[in-house]
Amino acid sequence: MKDLRRDNPVQRNLRQSHFFHLLPALARVMLITLSFMVIFVIVRHWIYPDIMSWRGQMVTIGFSAFGATIGAYIAFRTYFDVSEYRQRTLEALRESEDRYRGLFDRVPVGLYRTTPDGQILDANPALVEMLGYPDLETLLAVNARDVFINPEDRQREMALLDQAGVVINIEIQLRRYDGATIWVEDTVRSILGTEGRVLYYDGSLEDITERKGADEVRAWMASIVESSDDAIIGMTLDGTIITWNSAAERIYGYTMNEIKGHSVFILTPSGYNDELPQILDRIKNGGRVEHYETVRKRKSGEQIHVSLTISPILNVAGDIIGISKIARDITERKRMEQYVLRTERLAAMGNITAALAHEVKNPLQSILNNLELALNFSLESDETEECLQVCLREVERLIEITQRMLGFVRPEREAYHPISIPVVWQRTYALLNKTLQLAAIQVTTDIPENLPRVMGIPDQISQVFLNLVLNVRQALPSGGNLHIEARVEREMLVLTLTNNGPPIPDEHIEHIFDPFFTTKPDSTGLGLYISHTIIQQHGGTLSVQNLEGGKGMSFTITLPIADRAVVTTTDWQEVTSV
């Protein structure tokens, strides 16, 4: 702030000009004073002639006149300085008031002054706008008590002011001019008079409606997270756990205090350690992992099946600052699925047993015939060797058939792996070939050998093919055509199985993948449900549609192309050996 006591050139010139205007007045004062002093000396010398000589008396007159002049000058100068100080003080007060009023009017926070009985004495434009009033006069006509939504808030604020004389950052609800409700943060203090009585209250209001809304949303979201049945985990980009809800405690067995600050690798069992680095890299690059089924480890060491959805956490600028992980315990569901899958597989095996019997009977008959030739007839050595070679080939054929059947019935290890769809189809078709031939179903395929691999479990994909083809066989009791086509669309592998059987009724098509839904008395109604579930677990889709003109129907399977970012390390052999 400028020092008002410090002279500036304008003020100094002003005082000098005033001083020169005062010189005639000073001269008159000096002349009058000198005249009175001369008269005084003459009268005194006439009355007391012997006291002082004329020269001494004139000197006295001179000093007296000089002293009177100095006194007059000091008196005038004092008067001028007091007047000037008062003028400067008034100017400083006006300047300070202008600055205060400018700050009062321009500050973005609502400012007000009210009396103890609620009369609003003053308010700044920010408060008028905050409360939605058309102008200041309209607001001043309102009593402050009527602005409060809850009268209890006003009473509580007054009680705090009576007790402490100041209230800081108290949150209250106020009513706007249009009737809307806003949240504000109020800071107010009492201004007391000389007798200690409250003259008025000065306060400031800050609109916190948006912040309160955001706080309520955060509190609501926090309650959702805490009450969720799924484990919801917040992590840093390197996998350090920072948040952990109640479901995570229940699923994994660790409390928040036990797990916070530890790496998420603590939950990963051996054999799955290569998953996480690849998943974290994908999230750091802005990717997501949805419904990824894998195995995790509880505090007790027990392994559980979980379905993971992992997403990046973004700040307001869109930068990735963390990782959100949702884990659902699907252990019980996997057990039930495996039970149902084995049951359905055995039921499917019953459907192809007759066809497989032919495959087993023919090699056995060939072996028997060639052994009888070699044992009962005198053959040349090369003829005997040829019989034995035939027996050897037929035995190898029997071993292959047995291995295919065992591989179908025996459950595989639950792990995803890049697999070749053409190879899986060929292995499945080898089991179904005789069945389809007996049913007079002609199969054509358009499956390129160079198709990209997909992430999956060969045994389960084979189960899907088996279920769909058997469904087609049931739809074509008098024979027909089945065409299987595979192609790549964007990042998905698309397979269609089209047949020329009768269309599915409209009232059935929306329920065809429901569990136990069937229109056949000898069917469990689980085959298509299991197939649909398996494809969903592989991150794909399974749908059915009727062809135009009632010319048949088709199943469509989509599967995501293998992404090495979520490949599980396993001891699988090549799929071609399955």
**Average pLDDT figure:** 78
**Biggest sheet architecture:** 5 strands, antiparallel
Rg calc: 51 Å
Strand content: 15-25%
Specify the CATH class of the largest domain.
Alpha Beta
What would CATH call the architecture of the largest domain?
2-Layer Sandwich
Strand pairing plus helix content: what structural class?
alpha+beta
Spatial order of the strands in the main sheet? 2-1-5-4-3
The CATH superfamily label of the largest domain reads: Histidine kinase-like ATPase, C-terminal domain
**Overall strand count:** 17
Q: Which fold name fills CATH's third level, the topology of the largest domain? A: Heat Shock Protein 90
Described by the principal axes of the CA atoms, the overall outline is elongated
Considering DSSP H and I runs of 4 or more, what fraction of the residues is helical?
40-55%
Number of domains: 5
The end-to-end distance, rounded to whole angstroms, is 89 Å
The total of helices stands at 15
pLDDT < 50 runs, ≥5 residues = 1-22, 564-578
Q: What's this, in brief?
A:
With 578 residues, this protein is α+β, with helices and mostly antiparallel strands. The chain contains 15 helices and 17 strands.
Question: What order do the helices and strands come in, and which of them pair?
Answer:
Blueprint lengths: L8 H39 L6 H53 L3 E5 L5 E4 L1 H6 L5 H5 L10 H14 L1 E10 L5 E12 L5 E10 L1 H19 L3 E5 L5 E4 L1 H7 L3 H4 L15 H10 L4 E9 L5 E12 L5 E10 L1 H46 L4 H29 L7 E3 L1 H18 L2 E6 L7 E3 L1 H18 L4 E10 L2 E8 L6 H4 L17 H11 L3 E6 L6 E8 L18
Parallel strand pairs: 12-14
Antiparallel strand pairs: 1-2, 1-5, 3-4, 4-5, 6-7, 6-10, 8-9, 9-10, 11-13, 14-15, 15-17, 16-17
